[in-house]
Amino acid sequence: MTTWYSIKIDDEVAAKQTMQRVMDEFTPKYIGAGRPLTMAVFSSYNRESNTVSLYFSPKAASLAMRFGASPFDGVFADQELSLLVGDERSIDLLFPEADTK
Question: What gap in Å lies between CA 25 and CA 19, rounded to an integer?
Fold first, then answer.
């Protein structure tokens, strides 16, 4: 399975609450799955539209579904992504072409 999932949140308060819920629910699933490096959730803030987007890796698909995320068919190029939850090393595995300055 290689489908990423995403959810866009327009309200700042709702974004913070959702991000906290994602982090809270991620941890037991992550530990239960054996802490896979490819299981992670990333966030991105769009200043122009004042929205937060969350991106769930394919290994986090079940969590994405719990939050009503949709399949993401875009590209991550030129997006400033921050690791929300998961292992820092997941960035290298999930985005091997990324420039990590």
Answer: 10
Token readout for 77 is 């190029």
Instruction: Find, among 87, 34, 38, the residue nearest to 60 by Cα.
Output: 38
What is the pTM assigned to this prediction? 0.90
Reference 41, options 70, 76, 6; nearest CA is 6
Identify the residue with better confidence: 100 or 74.
Answer: 74
What do you get for the CA distance between the two ends of the chain, in Å?
Answer: 29
Helices (H), the chain: 12-32, 61-66, 90-94
**Cα dihedral sign, 41-23-26-28:** positive
